[in-house]
Amino acid sequence: QVQLVESGGGLVKPRGSLRLSCAASGFTFSDYYMSWFRQAPGKGLEWVSSINSNGATIYYGDSVKGRFTISRDNARNSLYLQMNSLRADDTAVYYCARDLQGGAWGQGTLVTVSS
Amino acid sequence: DIQMTQSPSSLSASVGDRVTITCQASQDISIYLNWFQQKVGKAPKLLIYDASNLETGVPSRFSGSGSGTDFTFTISSLQPEDIATYYCQQYDNFLPTFGQGTRLEIK
Known about the structure:
The complex is a heterodimer of chains A (115) and B (107).
Chain A: E1 3-7, E2 10-12, E3 18-25, E4 34-39, E5 45-51, E6 58-60, E7 68-73, E8 78-83, E9 92-98, E10 104-105, E11 109-113
Parallel strand pairs in A: 2-11
Antiparallel strand pairs in A: 1-3, 3-8, 4-5, 4-9, 5-6, 7-8, 9-10, 9-11
Chain B: E1 4-7, E2 10-13, E3 19-25, E4 33-38, E5 45-49, E6 53-54, E7 62-67, E8 70-75, E9 84-90, E10 97-98, E11 102-106
Parallel strand pairs in B: 2-11
Antiparallel strand pairs in B: 1-3, 3-8, 4-5, 4-9, 5-6, 7-8, 9-10, 9-11
């Protein structure tokens, strides 16, 4: 079965950096778009970024463009999100998901940006 | 960006009731509309894709309809395990956006 396991979340100071990872299994990772979504505490869902199967096509939401970088390693079945210049409003649970729209999701990892 | 207007924001219904949630897109999105269920403390789960297609393993009491700008999500007979927040999502332009969510409670 499809399994997505995020890691790398934690507490970081404003203007700091963090790198999230997502380990995928149970499907042919290199065949799929992959995405990151997030959900601020008590709020709704927000799409963050997506990357196509070979990494050549990437999309970002306006709120993270220029600060976050999505990447993937098909040999390691892994997805990454490098987050720089973090702000308090980046505080959220970050979910790794299969497909552009999120056909399957991981359990999420909490990122807290606070001084 | 394509804006999604979802209503109602909250809903209380009895077990066995028919429940309907609507979602309106700010522009024509064809059938590129999904419905997700999110239970408290859990990740979202895809229920309906491409407006009306039931994801594998999802009970048949869930259904979706619509195209263009107006979409409907229906639970034909509400069950206690359906307590959750439901979100619509469009993905017409490779930039997915969600409705604000509908919190469903049991009376």
